[in-house]
Write a structure and sequence with these properties.
Layout lengths: L6 H36 L23 E2 L2 E2 L6 E2 L2 E2 L13 E3 L4 H7 L12 E8 L7 E7 L6 H9 L9 E7 L5 H13 L3 E7 L8 H12 L3 E4 L2 H11 L13 H16 L1
Helix pairs in contact: 4-5
Length: about 270
């Protein structure tokens, strides 16, 4: 038979056990919540490195969500109250340059009939225009760079601003590069509107001759009555003597002048056939 006095002691032990179990359960819940928060934080996405201009930023460049001074959201970083901004550079407005004689260095560089003409971003146009018996022979040159119009257009605005159908204009151009597609189209229209103007163009180089729109423009120009030619070695010598400030210096052709002429002549013949 059990001792009646031991019953309260047993109940106290059971109560303590329940309290311990409740504490363990509470601690387990807190632990689960803490683990859940850690997992949620682990799911946060890190800032991605954006590729700019085909180059990924260097290791360590993307820190605190910034890349090369630009915040992850695309906003420029602020330095105090001022923002670091890069102002776009604007090219100065060049105008068409005209004159009678070309600088000899410019001629040798711009008219050289190399196949790859990197850095030659100007077009030189030397012209001879004979308006017939009642007019004076006009001679000079035009050059352009970052201009609102190309030299081909400038010729009609500056050299031939007024067209008189009574005159028969015989015009010859010696250009450092053949016309672009847009200029070829405008030249074709200008020739159609001026039936008494005869134009022959001698080009030192063919501008982007592989492009279909360039080829179409040259064919349209030829169909409008323009004679298209490639400058021969003798044409370079003639242009030097006629349009260059040469101080009576004899022009010396570069080594591959004849070879380059034959190359361009073949390409032009294929385009116009």
């Amino acid at each position: 038979m059990a001792d009646k006095k031991s019953a309260p002691v047993v109940r106290r032990k059971l109560d303590r056990k329940k309290e311990v179990d409740k504490k363990k359960e509470a601690q387990a819940e807190v632990k689960k919540e803490m683990q859940g928060e850690v997992k949620e934080k682990g799911k946060e996405k890190k800032p991605t490195d954006k590729v700019r201009n085909g180059e990924a930023p260097a290791e360590g460049a993307a820190v605190n969500g910034t890349t090369n001074g630009v915040a992850a959201g695309g906003e420029p970083m602020k330095n105090g109250d001022e923002e670091d901004k890069v102002e776009p550079m604007e090219l100065p407005p060049f105008e068409i340059i005209s004159g009678n004689r070309i600088d000899p260095f410019s001629f040798k560089y711009q008219f050289k009939n190399v196949e790859y003409c990197s850095g030659r971003n100007k077009t030189f146009l030397c012209y001879l225009m004979d308006p017939g018996k009642d007019g004076l022979l006009l001679r000079g040159y035009l050059e352009d760079e970052h201009a609102t119009e190309h030299v081909e257009e400038a010729f009609f605005a500056q050299v031939l601003p007024y067209y008189n159908p009574k005159y028969k204009y015989t015009t010859t151009w010696y250009v450092s590069s053949s016309p672009c597609a847009a200029c070829a189209a405008k030249l074709a229209e200008a020739l159609k509107a001026r039936p008494t103007l005869r134009l022959t163009i001698f080009s030192a180089r063919l501008f982007e001759w592989e492009e279909p729109e360039i080829q179409a423009g040259l064919r349209a120009l030829a169909a409008a009555g323009c004679k298209l030619r490639v400058m021969k070695p003798l044409d370079f010598t003639y242009t030097w003597d006629t349009f260059v400030e040469n101080d009576c210096e004899t022009f010396t052709l570069w080594e591959d002048c004849q070879e380059n002429y034959e190359y361009y002549q073949e390409k032009l013949a294929d385009i116009l056939q």
